[in-house]
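quick one before i forget lol
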Amino acid sequence: MKAAVLTHYDKKGTDLEIQDLPVPVPEDDEILARIMVAAVNPLDNMIIRGEVKLIVPYSV
């Protein structure tokens, strides 16, 4: 599957990578949903630039 992957913070917001990843296998109490459309909002831009990392820390 294709996924937009954030590997590290980037002040310019340009290092979001599109990668091919294996399709996850859901557990017994989970579902697997196919996303056909997605959007980006201003908070997403703040996250990739690291502007909210004190509130929402990112770790790999």
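fyi The two ends are 19 Å apart (CA to CA).
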